[in-house]
Amino acid sequence: MKYYRELDISKVSFFEESVLWLILGELPEAFYGESGEEARTNLEDIQNEHSLGSNFFEENDYEVLGVEVNFKRYNLAAYDYPGFSTVAGFREHYSRMKNSGHVGFGDISDSELAEVEYVETIDQLVAAKLDVGRIKLLDQLLCSNLTAYGFISYKQHSDEDEYFDSIDWDPEKIELSQIPASDWSINGFDQNADVLLTNDKSYFRVHFNTGDLLKVFPDPLCKGHVATGKVHGRSLILDVGPGFSNTNRSSLSKRTAKNKNIRVLTKEFSRRKKAGELGKKREAVYAEAIEWADNILDWNVSRTSVQRYLEKIFE
């Protein structure tokens, strides 16, 4: 038997979320902010820096993708070397820290390189699979078979941080607009930031209506299985037959959860540094980060780990 609980599906789907529907058969869950409305496209919640979050693959996701992975090894490497998904990037960072005199940065061992290389290899295989969905989405956009929407601004910006810092958040000056097919270009779209740049304007929080997405792509591209089961309230109990994995998709592994905590922590303290909210003494910052992680993430993290996770923001 397998047990599932019904989720509130979001009325909007961002680009990478739509890719996951095509490739993995997963739809985004609704999230409601302080305004009581769905936070992901509500101006008040966006202004308060509500994050779209990140996608973290579970073991069964790799099975659906057709990517063979040693899940334990991958997660251990991703946790031990957070933020380094390429060998070139790892070498460059390690060399810079060593030359700057930072403690603990000697010569890179072959075993360290092997683990980072393993992460890079798996990530490349996954990216190739996801690119199939990205191409299909862009094709439907350019053919006007699928419509995207975004908040429009008539300013150009070099990166996402500059973009959001310069926005006038007066609701009367921000317009949610349908994006014409003529405005779409591969070079102008940053799918990770959901920002589309054109010659004379920019769109942020670019998204589809989930209903429109399902009309164009009513079924995902991944192989499905016929199943029988019973619905009790908001719970579904399936009879597990051939083709089903015993992986429990409702719970993240401990390693995956830690990876998510690392990214949330580094993003928060990077934001604080840009806003000038951090003190000059690193030990005080580390203590602040430990306390924040405990209070907000319910995560007991060591001082040594925090130092490693936050070292980039002090470069």
Describe this structure in words.
Strand 8 and strand 9 (235-238) form a beta hairpin. The chain has helices spanning 15-24, 43-47, 59-65, 71-80, 87-99, 110-142, 160-165, 210-216, 254-274, 282-296, 303-310; strands at residues 2-5, 12-14, 148-153, 175-179, 189-190, 195-197, 202-209, 229-232, 235-238. Residues 49-54 and 243-253 have low confidence and may be disordered. The longest helix is centred in the middle third of the chain and has 33 residues, at 110-142. The strands form 2 sheets. Strands 2, 3, 4, 5, 6 and 7 form a 6-stranded antiparallel β-sheet that branches. The protein folds into 2 domains: 2-149 and 206-251, no CATH class; 252-315. The chain has 11 helices and 9 strands. It has 315 residues and is of the alpha+beta class. Helix 1 crosses helix 6 (110-142), helix 4 packs parallel to helix 9 and helix 10 packs across helix 11. It is 43% helix and 12% strand.
Key features?
315 residues, 9 strands, alpha+beta
Per DSSP E runs of 2 or more residues, the count of β-strands stands at 9
- Round the mean pLDDT to the nearest integer and report it: 78
**What's the N-to-C terminus distance?**
51 Å
What does the radius of gyration come to? 21 Å
Helix content bin:
40-55%
Structural class: alpha+beta
Strand proportion: 5-15%
Which blocks of ≥5 consecutive residues have pLDDT under 50?
49-54, 243-253
Principal-axes shape call: globular
What series of H and E elements makes up the topology? Answer: EEHHHHHHEHEEEEHEEHHH
Largest sheet: 6 strands, antiparallel
